[in-house]
Each structure stands twice: as structure tokens, then as C-alpha cells.
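Sequence in, structure out. Go.
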Amino acid sequence: MITNIEELYEAFSRNMVHKRWWDTDNKWEILLGAVLVQNTNWRNVDYALKNLYQATHFLPEEILALEMIQLQELIRPSGFYKGKSKTIIALLTWLESYQFNLSAVADKEFPVLRKELLGIKGIGEETADVLSVYVFDQSTFIADKYAQRMFEKFGFASTGYKQLKQRIVWPETMDTLRAQNLHGWIIEYGQVYLKNDEVWQSGPLKNFKLKLSANEEKQSKRV
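Output:
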């Protein structure tokens, strides 16, 4: 198991700018963005979000009232628009059963909430965790591609999202804000320093080491 996440957080905190990863207070915008960003870059998502805002102001009732072909055309810039439109409808329909009360959903125990999110077609592990942390005020580790590559540099090579997440001992001190900070910092740091080995060696966290159990060290070396 990886046991020094708090140390990693503090290392990032000393070296990174403290700012919000999602530059909005509108949780419906974040929810939609979390789906739209799948398999694309944020510039394309921006175009799709602008279209959605102009047509619906991100109101879930307004989005569900759209014809499927209308929704697909609005989010076309994000790519994979047919699949993403179905995911958006499924996600909003699920939330409609809670009268679109995000706070009521946020009151659920994290394992229960995550299981429900993963039961929605088109919502995978990463998107479920992003929604949990940024929309439903939960706290968990988001083991995205940047995290997987960075943790390999730190000493733990994983086979993918699920394996890395399962190996994290997530401290109780990591509240929602800290979970958001860590996720944002990993992406921002990775975008700069994960380009190649030479650039990695120029980064301030190049010597950070994860604390692994003996079995974990052996397993990481075999991956």
C-alpha cells in the first residue's frame, strides 16, 4: 500500500500555486464538463459548454427537454457526441430521481454514491471520482493518466486506474478541498514535467519517493 499521500500533498503545496482547478462555481457546468472532457482536450469542451449554456443555461430540466439530435449538435465540438449525449441524458435522468437536488446526492456514503455513478452507462471510474469530488463534495483519489505516470516516476508502476486507486491509503485529513487540490496539482505538474525524462529531472519533486509496503515494492518492480 502507498501510505504517504499527506507527504505528497505537502510537497505539492510548497511548490504549486493554490488555485481552483475548475474555474466555476456552477456544479452543473462541472458535471457536464466532466462528461464532455472524456477523450478530448479542454478547448473542444469549452466550445461545447458555450453552446450548452446559450441553449439551456446548464439547467438540467432544459437539457432533458432537448431532442437528442439537438443535444448532439450542441456538444458536437467535444467529439464522440453521440455517446456523450446518451451519457448526459442518463446522468441527468438519474439526478431527476433526486429532484435535481445535488446536496441530497452528496449526503450519500461515498461507496454507495460511487456504485450508483458507475451504474450509469458511460460513467467510468475516473469520471465517477471526478463527479464525486467536484460536484458531490466527497473526498477520494483520482488515479488518472497523469497520476499513473507520475506515481511510476515516484516508485510505483501500476497496470491502470483501478490498481493504482486500490493501493492508495487515503488519509482522513484529505478533505474535499485537498482532494481537489491534489488532483489539479498532479495534472498541472504532469503537463509541465512529464514530457520526457530530462524535463522530469528539472522538476522540484523529482526526488520524491512513495512509501510502499514490502509486497508493494516487489509488485511494482514486476509491472
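Check: The chain has a mean pLDDT of 95. The longest helix spans residues 176-193.
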